[in-house]
Amino acid sequence: MRRWLVEAALAVVAVALGSFFLATTLNEGGGWPIGAELAAGAVAVAALVRYRRSRPVALALALIALGLLFGLPMGATPVALFAVALYRPAGVTVAVAAVHAVSLATVYLIALGPTRTYWEATISLILLHVILVAVGMLVRAQRRLVRSWAERARVAERGDELRVEQARLAERERIAREMHDVLAHRISLLAVHAGALEVRRDAPAGERQAAGVIRQSAHDALEELRQVIGLLREPAEDRPQPTLADVPALVAQSRAAGERVELELSAAQVPAAVGRHAYRIVQEALTNARKHAPGTRVRVAVAGRAEQGLVVEVGNPLRAGRAVLPGSGTGLVGLRERVQLAGGRLEHGPTPAGEFRLRAWLPWHP
């Protein structure tokens, strides 16, 4: 609908300009019969509406020739030149405008001679067309600039989405590796106990056979687990996974690095899975504090009990200015993914007291 309104408005402008040029020509006693002028004008306006966007150069050249013969089509020529400037490169636009100016000056010189009327008409028409061409080139440049900004915004948005997705996948892979460590340890213990029961001579034959089946099943399950999840393992992470008991050591490392960290740890006998999640939360929170608020005092509190859940809270004063170390913004995304997969909740952001607080709740089932 908007496109047709634009085309109609341009047609009205072309007809109005053409009527002015036709009236001027008739007042001077020249021009073709009205029927021929109307037919030429109708052809010019129809061609303008039809080919202004698709073939602006051919349209402009045709209207230049038609406008030199008839008065009414002259109104469509400026619109055609504007379309060339809007949809074609600057070199093509300048060439078409030069052809029009030279043609106009030559024909008017032959018709009027080097008189004052010739100079006034030629200069005024060429200036009109030059202004329209300049405006069209400016609009084209502005549109290209807006498109480039929009494309940059889309690229940046896709990059942010990709980084967020990579952070989520990385966190899931790390959780999978942790699951592999835990399950591999449990299944190995099961296989060892089943093997010990299988070789007991005082055990009934049925129990020894059942123990053998359990041992073999555990062995097969361990091999399948290693095949499915073992590919996610990185050599640097081939070590025991941290638990809540390792949080004091993590805080000590941060203190050794120059951070002022206060630790309140009032939870004990936390399940290993919950402890691993709590450790990762504290680790990421301390990293963020070191990046975005170096030198501030960081408070770490871990508390909870069975059936009520474990609460991990880390807070530090906000620091004005930019971060000392750059951050990708994906650490908190990974934490949210981890906490959600564990069935918990994560909240973070500035507080009215001027602090940045991260608070996570993890379910704790005995």
Q: What do you see in this structure?
A:
The structure is a single chain. By secondary structure, the protein is α+β, with helices and mostly antiparallel strands. It folds into three domains: 2-113, no CATH class; 165-237; 244-362, Heat Shock Protein 90 (2-Layer Sandwich), CATH 3.30.565.10. Helix content is 66%, strand content 10%. The chain contains ten helices and five strands. It has a five-stranded mixed β-sheet, covered by helices on one side. Strand 1, helix 9 (272-292) and strand 2 (297-305) form a beta-alpha-beta unit. Helix 1 runs antiparallel to helix 2 and helix 9 (272-292) runs antiparallel to helix 10. The longest helix has 83 residues, at 116-198. It starts with a helix and ends with a strand. 25% of the residues are buried.
Helix content: 55-70%
User: Sheet bearing the most strands, described?
Assistant: 5 strands, mixed
- In the sheet with the most strands, the strands line up as 1-2-3-5-4
List unreliable stretches of 5+ residues.
321-328
The CATH homologous superfamily of the largest domain is called Histidine kinase-like ATPase, C-terminal domain
Beta-strand level of the residues, as a percent range?
5-15%
- Record field, number of beta strands: 5
Q: Based on the coordinates given, report the CATH architecture of the largest domain.
A: 2-Layer Sandwich
End-to-end span in angstroms? 66 Å
Q: Choose one word for the global shape.
A: elongated
Sketch the topology as an H/E string, one letter per element. Answer: HHHHHHHHEHEEHEE
Mean pLDDT: 78
Q: What is this entry, summarized?
A:
With 366 residues, the chain is of the alpha+beta class. It is built from ten helices and five strands; from the N terminus they run ααααααααβαββαββ. It has helices spanning 2-27, 34-51, 56-69, 76-87, 90-112, 116-198, 205-229, 247-256, 272-292, 331-341; strands at residues 260-265, 297-305, 309-317, 345-350, 355-362.
